[in-house]
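dude i think i finally got it to work??
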Amino acid sequence: MTRFLSGLMLALIAAAGFLTLSGGKAAAQYAIQPGDQLQIEVLEDSSLNRGTLVLPDGTITFPLVGTIRAAGQSVSQVRAVITRKLASNFANEPNVFVTVARLADKGPLVPAAPDTMRIYIMGEVNQAGLIEVDPSTTLLQALAQAGGFTRFGAQKRVQLRRTQGGKTRVYTYNYKTGAGISGATVLSEGDVIVVPERGLFE
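look at this
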């Protein structure tokens, strides 16, 4: 009986190890998709830690790195790119961890309710991603709904990207001085607001 129980325990341990290894391989081989939510952490600087949404064009934006392509890549490939681009900012190569925190919804697209519209906010805001807003929402109100700027945000170079008739126009808004388009500009369905990373002396 004792020999049987020992054998059973060994079999269970081996099976658990196999499942863990298989799950690890599956995670490592997963190709990131637009709409996935990534969690990126830098061991040496916790202020860089954040979640970021993979935009419809397949890109993500990260402080000190800029915009990089994530869709179609594995988490290991994205981690390698971020590590390489961050390296010059640290005495030693930083330890970067990238995980897929949430998968994109693969179900049928549900249209926004008639009294709301969908816009994207990306870059240096505290809550980047796809949000639904009232049709009368302004640029400044959308930035507030996204939690405001991070400490890396280029507040003088906020971009509003609007596509009409197959052409995309980029408008610039200066939050500090009010220059460029107005913060009271009413947004349209599908608008993309981009807050770039500020320069060293901004």
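Residues 2-23 have pLDDT under 50 and may be disordered.
im so relieved honestly
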